[in-house]
Every structure is written in structure tokens, then in C-alpha cells.
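sorry to bug you again but im stuck and you know this stuff better than me. what follows is a protein written twice so to speak, once as letters and once as C-alpha cells for the fold. mainly i need to know what kind of three dimensional shape the backbone takes. anything you notice is useful, everything is just below:
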Amino acid sequence: MARIAIVGAGNLGQAMAGHLALEGHDVSIFNRTAARVEEINGRGGIQVEGVVEGFARLEKASPDLAEVLPGRSLVVLTVPASSHRAVIKGCAPLLEDGMAVVLHPGHTFGAFDARSALDELGVSKDITFGEIQTSLLTSRLTGPGRVKVSGIKNALPMGVFPSDHGFDRLEVLFDAYPTSIRAPNVLKTGLDNLNAPVHVPVTLLNLGPIDRAQEFLYYWEGFTPAVSRLVEAVDAERCALARELGVTPITIREFFETAYPTEGDELWEKVRSNEAYREITAPRSVNTRLIFEDLPTGLVAFSSLGRHLGVDTPTCDALIQVANTIFGTDFAAEGRTVERMGLASLDAAGIREYARTGRR
């Protein structure tokens, strides 16, 4: 039995907390909104349905990190990636030597961003950062303290930073999700971020119906052949960056062939035959995490890395500019740039070495 803290009680946080508790682990969960915690405490735990079934009793559900983090060997952040840095800084005084902090998912270079945040605070504790490529569980909340898990992904990589030690601290996750893969480093998990190449193009090209709050199936109806071509253009730029850093990337097509049972030859056919996506509806507002999370922690990172390493990313750059205009913001200002992640002084070889050792 491991002592685990889940930070974030949204659909993924509750799904993971419930699943790990049903696996026999001592699980606590934090959420900054007290109402969500009260829902869990009012039910006495989390009811899990779908491919995982059971009522999960938790050790603690609290809006106070000081009641959730101390004494835990594994901390899993299921908060939006755009808030990773702020949450890590909030956790910093409570982190303990030997802890593993897993970003679920890490998006692109979440581990580097988290380490940079601790460095800014002068925190030098022995923390292993883990990254999961994307969400292990496809899930949604169906009521107070109630979550449906519609799928568990196969062959999903997990990486650690630094990569030359620390995998033993994530062993509980490999036991719970035995089809997961040990990634060689967080360059692999970060550059295999598939949320950004999918979510940003699909959302921007369906922004009209989203802005009208029109109900439609995000993947089954929004992922058309034309949208698919734009997704694959972004994906090609991501893969070029990965190869520049010595990473053999998984393409978006390969991912859907390995993570889910799908049909068809074209990408849009694979996506629209995925039963785990059947009930996923589009957001009802343009102010969605599919832009405000995936663009600054995905496309901004791709674009910044591209400029730094001399890899062209014209499609990413164009989508960022379009989003800047639509939303009246500068996504790079708070996004994951090489400067923000502490990589600006490193060439490709230096970034690879930093991923391995944690030393610049």
C-alpha cells in the first residue's frame, strides 16, 4: 500500500483517486474549491463507474494542502497544465525529500517548468518529477463524488526527471497501470504531447458553434477530414522538433492505433471510430482549457523550441497568432518558453543531458 496525494478533484483527479483507492492504496485528495471537497466528503468517498467499478473511500479530502501532502510518497497533479507552476509553488513548502511529483498529464516539458519554479524559490529538495504523456483515464464527472471511467489507455509512456534515477518512485503507477511504458526521459513524454496538436486546431476550427453554445460531439462530429489535415500539419512540426532532440516520436496516427481499438486508414476515421470518445461533447464556451491550457503549454513550447533549435514551426506559429487575435492576449507571455523553463542556455545536446542528469 502506497500513501498517495492527488492534487485536483476534477474528472481526472477523482477518477485516479477512486481507482488507486480501489487498488488498495491510502489516497488523499486536494481541491482548492471547498465545494468539490464537500461533495466527496458528503458522499463519504467517490463512486466510480464504467471500466472501473466500485465505491472508493479516501483517507482525506481537503481544500488545505497541509492536510493532504505531508507523509505522502507520491503526489499526482491532475490540475490544468497551465496552473502547474503556481500549484508547484504552493506545494513547495510541504514537499519532502524522496517524494515523486507526477504531472498527469505533463503536456510539453512540465517537469522542466516545475523544476524551474522550485529553483526560483531556492528549493533544492530531492524531488523526482514524473510526467505522463496524456491522461491515463478517459473520464467525466456524472454527479457529486461520482465519476465515470470510459477507458484506460494502453501503451502510454511515463517518464521521470532526471532520467538517471527515480523510476522506483513511480512503481505504484506501473503496478496500477501495467500496460504503461517507461519512457527513456521526459523529452519523450513532453514531445509526445498529443493534446495540443489535436485540441487547438479542432477547437479553433469549430469555434463558431462553440461560441453559439451549440451542442455537438467534439470528436465524432468536430473532427472532420479538413480539420484532420490541419491536425496532421501541427503534428508533423512536433515530430520534427522531437527528432532534433534525439527523440523518436509517436505520430498522432500511431497513437490512435496503439491506445484505442479504432477503424479506418485516415486519421479522422480512427478518431471518429473510437468508442471512448462517443459521448464527449464540445465545450459550451470559447473560454475553454482546450485553448487556454493546451496552447500555452503545447504550441507555445513547440514554437519557442523551434526558434531556439532552428526548426521551422509555421503552422504552430500561425495558430498561436490566430488565437492571440481572437482572445486578445499574448499566449507566449505566460506560456512554456525556453527562457521560462531554464533551457535558453542549452543547445540540443545540452537539453538532452539536462533531461538525463538534472544538471545544466
The chain has two domains: 3-191, 195-357.
